[in-house]
Design a protein that fits this description.
By secondary structure, this protein is mainly α. It has helices spanning about 5-20, 25-35, 50-65. The radius of gyration is 15 Å and the shape is flat.
Length: about 60
């Protein structure tokens, strides 16, 4: 398996476990600033309410087994 695919799978698993994410627009804006030569911090990862609920339900199901 290629390194990029492994990274993508690891990122997906992390998202499924935590719900932490940035939007595509946030990522695109950050990358555009880097490309323009600006030294900017990456966007802050966050969890929205719906994602937090889904993650909590998944963890509860894991605990019930």
């Amino acid at each position: 398996m290629s390194g990029n695919l492994q990274d993508a799978i690891r990122a997906w698993n992390d998202y499924q476990a935590t719900g932490l994410h940035v939007t595509q627009d946030e990522a695109d804006d950050w990358l555009a600033k880097l490309e323009a030569g600006h030294d900017v911090a990456p966007p802050v990862c966050r969890v929205d309410e719906q994602t937090a609920l889904i993650v909590a339900v998944r963890h509860q199901k894991d605990l019930d087994c």
